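To whoever picks this up:

The parser on our side crashed when reading a file containing two proteins. I've narrowed it down to the boundary between the first structure block and the second sequence. Both blocks are reproduced below exactly, byte for byte. First block:
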Amino acid sequence: MSFLGKKVWITGASSGIGAGLARELAAQGAHLLLSARREDELHKVQAECLERHGPIDILIHCAGVSQRALARDTISEVDRAIMEINYFGTVELTRAVLPSMLARKQGQLVVVSSVAGKIGTPLRSSYSASKHALLGYFDCLRAEVYQDGISVTIVCPGYIDTEIGSKAYTGDGGRYGKLEGVLHHGMPVQECARVILRAVARREPEVVVSRAKERTAVYLRRFFPKLLFRLVRTHIPS
């Protein structure tokens, strides 16, 4: 599938994977609608590739927030805020766009979940829960709308070189505010964007975008869960 002339809405487009996808799609001739919570950063991306368009061909959900806190230290307001942004916001926007896709019998929904939606690791309990929820909801929706000509692609990134960690919630609702080496040495954003778009173009139902280490972890979770659980608990901070 070519993206030339396609009308694509990207949420979370002001930074990270969303911004990377916007730049790649603009270079391939797509017509873009970009939205984000940080208006000042969004304008930087907008200046490069935003154009006016009509009905949506592809909706890409990239908006999200992470977490860096033990479950026992996380207040319920943080749990709810993460679910509102990562899960409920995604579902509600899908609900708003879906009727027009159903009416035209075409469209594609692309949901950026995470490897954390498959594997739970320390300090990310609510974040991981929200990403697991996305997998469950959109797996169901994929089956429901298949006969209507609508496809659903779920993207599960591993470590990508973004600032998601520094913007993550701490247990009391503050921001983590630190750059993480494991992310800084992760896959470059533009490489990640290109991998995602190849999967979208092929209408793949799911793609894990990561280096070999995270893909191995997904394999272990499926076939050797006890081994993975032992490995994960060695990373609990003291």
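<<boundary where parser fails>>
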Amino acid sequence: MRLLLIEDETALRHSLKKQLEADGYRVDEAADGEDGLFQANEYPVDLAIVDLGLPKLSGLSVVEKLRANGKTLPILILTARGSWQDKVKGLEAGADDYLVKPFEYPELVARVKALLRRSLKAASDTLVLGPISLDFSAQQAKVDGVSVDLTTFEYRMLEYLVRERARVVSKQELSDYLYPHDEDRDSNVLEVLIGRLRRKLDPDGSLAPIETLRGRGYRFVIEPA
């Protein structure tokens, strides 16, 4: 999963980024509201963690603008303000949950996992789609109960296609999701990864879980039972 962390406190931002990445998340960061809003609008993000007290553009404005732009990603707001009015304002702006500073990291990651489960419409950390199952906590895929040996990139690709399975995902979007935003990418590498993922999930070609739509992109076609 790819997270966007918008937090102006440098020490806290670096600490959360390090802990989240140790737990297997890909984390992009922004130190102010303007940069955070730009990244959330321009690149694929699974969830945003937004501090309310941001420079240049407040966290509340970031949330409002993202929702006004039609962005439906889960948003967890962080606030040093303890009043119920501030929490209500954040939720009414479109945030999905809030956490009051100071907080312990286990509580933050628990809320992140809950919001991601909700966005995936999964009741637990495991989502079953026909013979394929994904364990989001372990970052593990299985086919007919047998673990599939996926690289980090292959798993992230599969997880994103599963999350966005209601629509076609373009090559550009998938590339933006997998790679750092300032890194040059070769589209042929993406095609190789898709081919390799297909062979691992469906070695005999009977399942065909990933559909290619020429000139448009890819779509995961198996729905939960």
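After patching the parser it read the second block fine. The chain has two domains: 2-119, 126-220. The radius of gyration is 18 Å.
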